[in-house]
Amino acid sequence: MLDEGRGPEWEHHVGHCASALLSVLTGEAETDYFPGLPLESHRFDSNDDILT
After folding, report:
1. pTM for this prediction
2. CB-count burial class (<10 Å; 0-12, 13-18, 19+) for 38
3. Percent of the chain at pLDDT above 70?
């Protein structure tokens, strides 16, 4: 379940948190809480330089 944080509205997504988030980020699931997703392109940067 996703909650807007400041109100009574909730969205139900099937599955675990990580799979629900992945489905929102990839466009498999629609959400009103993250407008503009999925992005046409995105990248994930490594944290290797931060964690050393």
Report:
1. 0.56
2. middle
3. 96
